[in-house]
Design a protein that fits this description.
seven-stranded mixed β-sheet; alpha/beta; 14 helices; disordered N terminus
Amino acid sequence: MHRLITASALALGLAGPAAAQVAEECREVSMSDVGWTDITTTTAIARHVLEGLGYSVDVKVLSVPVTFASLENDDVDVFLGNWMPSQSQAIQPYLDSGEIEQVAINLEGTKYNLAVPAYTYEKGLQSYDDLAAFEPELDGTIYGIEPGNEGNAYLIGLTEENAHGLGDFEVKESSEQGMLAQVRRAVDDEEDVVFLGWEPHPMNANFDLEYLSGGEDFFGGEGVVHTTTRAGLTEECPNLGTLLAQMTFTLPMENEIMGKILDDGMDPAEATQEWLQAHPDVIDPWLQGVTTVEGEEGLPAVRQELGLDS
């Protein structure tokens, strides 16, 4: 019944611009960017679209744990980077309490696990159970990403429990850029290195790498990324909810844009706008039934804002 009422209200709103105007309290959207280039990319894309519709967008750079706490406290509205199943443990209490909602899957076919250069893999380091034998070559170090990341926490737990014989290993936490800089140095010198890898990411093209088997209890196999919101957002702001439910991305899209950012040094806003201008039809399904904040048709407004019709 609620869905019928919402659909009817939307249909009536589209009949007249004044009735379809977005409520004032829904015109400001706060988003979390956890500093991973893929989430920076999708957040920048969403910001372009939202601003084209007339929304005011505030992007906060927060860690994953702080993001979930901020969604619970209504300090953040939207997070496009809920990687599953790797974030299952971190997000489940909030889902159980109803304070966070997963409103859509925005990306499928992701990878996230420990990775090594192909030459190290060919030497025999192919699984978690092989790591202990390579401890000297690896200097007893696993390179992780930002402090507080749930992937790091899982790996640190393995070292504390001496699982897979990892008791002598240290998980070195760093930024994505810091970790990849270390990998680049190791690869340039043909040294062995093990690190957290994921796709989408240009590292899969920039390095000849292989993912280790193991860690399935945490990382799973192929994964998905969810769009998550604070509780009640899509009901309170149905126009925004429609957009979020329809906005999906692909691995080739994200890999290409991330390459512009990481390899070519482009600003994320410029890289995403350039990509959208080269692929103007990608936004059409995102904006079906979506209006500007003033109640006008959304697609023409966004196309004009992004320069897609020039």
